[in-house]
Amino acid sequence: MNLKRKNRLLVKISILVAVLLVTVLVFTGCIRGMTPIGWSGVTISDSTLYAGSKEGRLVSVNLAASPQMISFAEPLRAAPTGGIGCASSGGGGACGGAPPAVAIYGTPVISENLVYLAGYNGKIFAYNANNLQQRWVFPVEGNLAPIVSGIAVAEDTLYFGGTDGKVYALDTESPERRWEFTTGGEIWATPVVSNGTVFVSSFDKKVYALDAATGDLKWEFATEATNVATPLVADGIVYVGSLDRNIYALNENDGSLVWSFSGGNWFWSQPVIHNGIVFAPCLDSWVYGLDARTGERRIEYNVEGQVSSSPVVVNDQLIVATRNGRLLSLSTSPASPGQLLIANIVDEVTAPLGVSNDVVYVNAPDNNIYAYNVATGARFSPISLGSQ
Amino acid sequence: MNVWDIVILQPMINILIVLSNFLFNNFGLTIIALTIIIRFILLPLTNRQLRATKALSTLQPKMQELQKKYGKDKQKLAQEQMQLYKTSGINPVGCAVPMLIQFPIWIALYQAIILSLAVSPEALLNLSRYFYSWATPFVELPLNNYFLGLNLAAPNVIIALLVGTTMWIQQKMVNPQNQDPRMAQQSMLMLWMMPIMFTFFSFSFPSGLALYWVISNIFSIAAQYYVTGWGGLSFGGGGPKDRESARDKKLKKRLYVEGAKRDESDGKTDSKEDSK
What we know:
The complex is a heterodimer of chains A (388) and B (276).
Chain A: H1 3-29, E1 42-45, E2 48-52, E3 58-62, E4 69-72, E5 109-111, E6 114-119, E7 123-128, E8 134-138, E9 151-154, E10 157-161, E11 166-171, E12 177-182, E13 192-194, E14 197-202, E15 206-211, E16 217-222, E17 232-234, E18 237-241, E19 246-251, E20 257-262, E21 272-274, E22 277-281, E23 286-291, E24 297-302, E25 312-314, E26 317-321, E27 326-331, E28 339-344, E29 354-356, E30 359-363, E31 368-373, E32 383-384
Chain B: H1 3-22, H2 27-41, H3 43-58, H4 60-70, H5 74-88, H6 96-117, H7 121-127, H8 135-140, E1 146-147, E2 150-151, H9 157-174, H10 181-202, H11 207-228, H12 246-275
Antiparallel strand pairs in B: 1-2
Helix pairs in contact in B: 1-2, 1-6, 2-6, 2-11, 3-6, 3-11, 4-5, 9-10, 9-11
C-alpha cells in the first residue's frame, strides 16, 4: 500500500474513531436519571384509584368493576424549553429526542369530587373525579417553575410548593391565588396542614410553619442541609427528615427542637407513626423505629436497599418498598421484630405506597401498578397505566 | 454498583463534591478546577501523544521523497519507509496509546459532571448511592448550578458555540500545512466535522458539561502550542514557526545525516547501473 493511500486510510480511520468517540460520549452521558420521569403515588377513594402515569396524565381505575375500568385524562403538555435532549427541563423529555411526557411527582389528591394534580410543567390541574374532565388549570396562561411537590388540601384551600421556592395557596374552586410565601430555595416536599398551620421544608435548609389562612411566618427551623422530605405532624410534634442525615422532631407550636436522630444517609421520604413509634426510612438501607417522644431507637431493620418511598402501615405491619424493587413487611412491635419479603418488583420503587382495605398499591417506574393483599398474601395482576 | 462505578466514578464524584466545598460551593469553578487538575496529571501522556504526532508530521517530507524515488518499486518503498521509522525511532501508532489510556478518565469525569449536576429529581436521588461516609458530600448537595449567569444544568447557546470554536482551533493547530491536496481535503473534513458535532451535542446537554469541554479544549490548545507552536493555525507568511525542543533538533539532524548517507549510496549505485 503506498504512502498516500495509507495516509488516506489513517484519516478515514481517524474520522471513524472520532464519530465513535462522540457517539460513546453521548450515550455514556445519557446516564439513567437524567430525564424527569416522576414518582407519583396512588390515591384511593370509593373504590377508585387515581395515579399519575409515566405518560404524563392522570389515570383512574375503577377497582370494583370487573374487568377493571381504566380512564385517562388528557396528557399534560410540556412547557416550552430550549433543550432538545437529556437536559430538557420543561417537563419531560428523553435522550435522543423521544416525544416528551410531562413528569408527575406529586400524588393526586381528592377533595369534594375534584382530583388535583401537579405537573413538572409548572401547572396545577383540577379534574372532575367522575369523568376526568379538566375543571381548571393554574396558571391559566404560562407556566410556573417545574413542580416536584405534591398538593395538600385543607377546607377550601389548596397548598403546594414550587421549584421557584414559593409556597402557594389557591382557592380550590376558582383557582384564585390566596397567598404565596417565598423561601430561599426550591421546594420539593409536599406541604402538610395541621391545626391551621402549613408545614413545609425547603432547599434553603429550613423547615417553615406558616399561617394557613394568611401565609404569615409563624416559625422556622434551620437544618444543616437541604430538605426534600414531606413532614409528618402528629400529637403536637413535627417530624421531618433532612439531607444532613438527621431526622428532627420539632414542637408544632414554636419549632423548638424536641430531639434529632442521625442516620447513615439522607432521609428522603415522609416517616409514618404507629403506636408511639416513628418509622423513618433512610437511604442508608435502614428503617429506624424511634420513640415518638424521645427519639430513642426502639427497633431497626436493614432492608438491603435504599428506601426513598414513603411506607404505609397495614395491620400492625410496616410495608416498605426499596429502590432495588423489594417490597417488605416489617413488624412494628419492638417486642417481636421480623421482616418478610412480600415481592420482588420489576424495577426500583420511588413512589409513595398507597393502601386500601389491606391492599398495598405500588406505582412502579414501568408504568404499572402492582397490588398485594398484605393480609392474605394475594397478588393481583399488574394494572397498566399505559393508554395503548 | 458495578466495578466502573466503584473504582472510577465514585471517587470522581466525591472529589468533585468535596472540591466544590472549597470553591464556595460553586460547581462552575469546581468543573474548571478539576478539569485542569486532571489534565495536568495526564500531561505527560498528552505531551507524549503530541510529540508522537508531531514526529510523524516531521517525517512527511522524507516520506514524500521516498515516494518520488521508489514509487514504482513498492517493495523497496516499503523497506525504506520501515527503515525510516526505525532510524527515526518513531512508532507510527505512538499517538494512539496515550489517547487510549486517557480515554476512560475523560469518560469518568464527563459522567461525574453529568451525575453531579443532578438535572432531574431522579438524578439527585441517584447521587446518594455514590457517597462515601464523609459528611461533606451529604450536606453540600445539591450543588449551586449557577456560574457567571449560566445555569449549568441547562443547555446554553453561547457556551455550545465556544465548544465548537475551541475545538476548531485545536484541530487547526494539529493539521499541518503543506499537505498533499487530497490529504488536505480530508483533513479539512476532520477539521470541521468534530467541532460541528460537539457543538450540536452541546446544544442538547447541560452547559456544565460544555464548560468541561471548553476548559479541556483550552488546555489542549495550550499544550499543543507548547509542543508544536501554532502549527496549522500560524498566521505567518511562511510555514509554521515550530517550537523545537532539543529532542526535535536531534531528530532532524539524525534524519538529515541518514538521508545524506542514503543519497550518497544511491548515487554510487545509480552510476554503477549507468555504467552497465
